Structures
1.
Amino acid sequence: MKRISLLLAISVLAVLAVTNLAMANMTYTETINIYRVQTYDSGFDRGSFYWFHQNPAEISGGGPMTPEQYEAAVLAGNIADVTLTIVLDDLNQGDTVEAWILDQQNDMHFLGLLEPMTASDSLGYKSGEQAYPGHRSTTIFDNIGPAWLDGLPVKVHLAGNSGPIEIETSTLSVTTMLPTPGAILLGSVGVILVGWLCRRGRI
């Protein structure tokens, strides 16, 4: 009886373990060094300031999935999170810059406003990787629909009214919930063990 209970406990633990491990998150990222200065003082539209990201979860972006596998993961609800992080230099307080994403159906999705700098001085931007203290700002958008990334590339647009600003970097991150090889192996062991016990009439 003790042996049966032990085998049953092992099988249950194996199945529970694979359930948890199969949903272990993996995050794939792509960071683009832009360092591009926007010099329009009288406003700029979405057609004048944009850049492209690859989907980092797909093979073209360095990830493990083909576009078809990514689409299947989206439909299965296995994409846990998509974020876009934009780093600026010298977006003045009171100025407004919007961020948008264009999906593969050519629909524009408004993400929100970029964060201004905390400094109140008028030193301006420093071209390149340097910035005056308090002039660099970071905005993280986590309201991106995973399906918006179907197909490549992903196009990010800016629009708004501001003095000269520098877009420094842009990072697109995709977090998946896909089975890992270890989870699949452990799950297989658990399923085989449960099946063996069932055939022997012990559970």
2.
Amino acid sequence: MIRMNNRRSDGARTDLNDALAINSTDPNSLQLDGDLLIKMGHTDEAIAVYKKILAMDPKNRFALTSIGYASRAAGRDQDAEKYFERLAQAYPTLYVPWLALGDMNASRHEYARAESDYAKGYALAPDNALLVAGGLNATLRP
């Protein structure tokens, strides 16, 4: 983890391989593996790792969040939307999926949907500046 955050991906890869050799089904090690793969630009491989976590724990909050963002980065908005909606359903008090959906819908110029998503997130976290800014941007659309 320290090596990964210090951009020493080779050392981090070695550390994660060691951890996964001990327990290849540990969701925490798998999550770190997926996160490292994202940082290394291996989005499709990371998505496969996150899917492995979700196969073991379909409501894993971190895997759902990560696979949503990874899917969006890979240009798979429909997949991203599906994962963010699963996250919202599994964790109804979490604002994160609404922020992610709002951002995604705003980028697709679907401002009414984005505004609705931001409003749902705002109801859960009214002090979150990103939700406030996103909601205002969606409301003041071009």
3.
Amino acid sequence: MESLLSFLRGHWNHERTPNPSQEGNGQDADKYLLPSWEGSGVGRFMESLFVAIALMSFPLAGLAEKIPGEAASLDKVEIQGEVKPGGNIVAVVHVKLEKNWHVQSNKPSEPSYIPTVLNLSPTPGVKPGTIKYPEGKSEKVQGIEKPLSVYDGDFQISALLNLDAKAKLPLTIPATVKYQACQGATCYPPKRLKFDIVIGGEGKKK
């Protein structure tokens, strides 16, 4: 930014016009008249305008850069069943993975691998029941002898929810999907996909 501003200032200096009254008199012949707006409020405005244009030209992709290994995102939370106090419903969490990424299934092929797990925070008025995970897909990865049990593309996790007879709707259950994303044999530190399961409304990612 400083180099650009210096260039612009230098350009302005070269554009200064000679003072006709001082040309050829041998005295102060190297002095020049400044453009009438330089040093004035208009000049400061022009300088600010050039700075603003320069800032807008800088690449902004880095500001939105994702953390390595953040390959999962929430598509939606689907509520199945009649939502009423005392009722039983099922929350279906739809997870999307970026192309060419996979995560270990809930039952990895090796005990040392980190499974994909849905965690529900304790919430008054609702008692979580059975959580069902999809079966893992067998995938052979170069550099690993035994096939992996993974999820890729889109997958769903279902959670049975038992509503209390005195539950006050709508209610919100903070939820987290813990996963470890990999590309081939390269895996990244575990991540947490945080979102809300809203009963009597729509779920949304935090």
